[in-house]
Design goal:
The structure is a single chain. By secondary structure, the chain is α+β, with helices and mostly antiparallel strands. 13% of the residues lie in helices and 33% in strands. It folds into two domains: 15-135, Rieske Iron-sulfur Protein; 153-346, Alpha-Beta Complex (Naphthalene 1,2-dioxygenase Alpha Subunit, Chain A, domain 1), CATH 3.90.380. The chain has helices at 74-77, 173-176, 185-189, 277-303, 319-327, and strands at residues 17-23, 33-37, 40-46, 53-57, 82-83, 86-88, 95-96, 102-104, 121-122, 124-127, 130-135, 157-158, 163-168, 191-201, 204-213, 223-231, 235-241, 245-256, 259-269, 340-346. The strands form four sheets. Strands 12, 13, 14, 15, 16, 17, 18, 19 and 20 form a nine-stranded antiparallel sheet that branches. Strands 2-3-4-9 form a four-stranded antiparallel sheet, with no helix packed on it. The two termini are 41 Å apart.
Length: 366
């Protein structure tokens, strides 16, 4: 398994940024969830008072008990593990608040609680039906936020359900390489590329592409247009104009150095002001077609060897520039870490009318 140092990405093993850590639908009230990311065991739970997701390190500082991997303790069986926004250790019932501080040792009332009795807490947000955590090896505050998605609260749009692809034993740089990879579209996805452009701007990498696809994501011989944006190194949000207006999300988060957990989802616009049951069924079928297309890439990644270096030819996309952009997240932040440049690989028609491929001829103003 190739690690960050094998790719010579920088001084840190894990990147800085926002990363998905859970499908919010899997987070049940009163039931902490054991997860592992960034080489650390973590516990995610929903506060009973605030309803907000809370992410903390997994092990109690008292005797190293995992806070979520227990089903037989009476702390768990009695339903008292989550109290308000706090969590109790199932072993000795020490209680920790949302900031990770121990605030109660039930068998030592009035005793001074040691300052070392705390666990690390993480900054999290709940967005688009998912929980995202901010990770910075240097402990810094976020220097960008996840974007707004107006479609999420629009009743005409059918919200996604997440496809959990599980853990992939590949370094995330291999997935990010796809943003520069113009040449794989026809052999893998059956799509003839008419234009392609990659723009690198600070924490964002923006991929613009259009072509005719053999999949059912478009009407016959219609142009499939996508504007894909990486918001940092692990969250890819893509506007897709094909058979239906849609956005798809690909989120990948390091589990250990050299492995990632991967999710896929699609939100689809219906032709009605409020989506009907038939629209929901249509959207689910459309997401399945997108999932199958993503699975074509996933199969390649699963069985390839690490591309520590790429034998790049002039007709390839700008892998080298993309990897330079990607390295900024593995190094302490600073002005020199950011990239800003645009790379046109195939002709980019600036006045392209992208409404021609809609079945109803409509456009949207998102």
């Amino acid at each position: 398994m190739a690690r960050s140092r094998d790719y010579r990405l920088g001084s840190q093993d894990f990147p800085r940024g926002w990363f998905m850590v859970a499908d919010a639908a899997t987070l049940q009230h009163g039931q902490p969830l054991a997860v592992r990311f960034f080489g650390r065991d973590l516990v995610l739970y929903r506060g009973a008072d605030s309803g907000r997701p809370i992410l903390v390190d997994a092990y109690c500082p008292h005797m190293g008990t995992h806070l979520a991997r227990n089903h037989t303790s009476y702390v768990v069986r009695d339903g008292s593990q989550i109290e308000g926004d706090t969590i109790r250790c199932p072993y000795h019932a020490w209680r920790f608040d949302a900031e990770g501080r121990c605030i109660d040792i039930p068998y030592a009332p009035g005793a001074k609680i040691p300052s070392a009795a705390r666990i690390a807490s993480w900054r999290v947000v709940e967005r688009w039906g998912a929980v995202f955590a901010w990770h910075d090896p240097d402990g810094g505050e976020p220097d960008w936020e996840l974007p707004a998605l107006a479609a999420w609260d629009d009743p005409a749009w059918v919200r996604w359900r997440f496809d959990d692809f599980g853990v992939l034993d590949r370094h995330p740089v291999e997935i990010v390489d796809n943003m520069a990879d113009v040449a794989h579209q026809e052999p893998i996805h059956g799509q003839t590329v008419r234009y392609f452009e990659l723009e690198l701007d600070g924490h964002r990498a923006i991929h613009r592409e259009g072509g005719v696809s053999r999949t059912s994501l478009t009407a016959d011989d219609a142009l499939l247009c996508i504007d894909a944006v990486y918001h940092g190194p692990g969250v890819l949000l893509t506007e897709m104009l094909g058979r239906y207006p849609s956005y798809f999300l690909i989120a990948h988060t390091p589990v250990d150095d050299g492995s990632i957990r991967v999710w896929h989802a699609v939100i689809v616009k219906s032709p009605h002001e409020r989506a009907t049951d038939e629209d929901v069924a249509m959207a689910r079928a459309f997401q399945e077609q997108s999932r199958l297309a993503f699975a074509q890439d996933f199969e390649i990644w699963t069985h390839k060897r690490p591309a520590l270096t790429i034998l790049q030819i002039p007709h390839d996309g700008p892998y080298d520039k993309l990897r330079t952009w990607y390295r900024q997240f593995y190094n302490p932040r600073g002005p020199s870490d950011r990239a800003r440049t645009t790379h046109g690989v195939r002709g980019m028609p600036r006045n392209l009318d992208r409404t021609d491929n809609r079945e109803d001829g409509s456009s949207d103003d998102l």
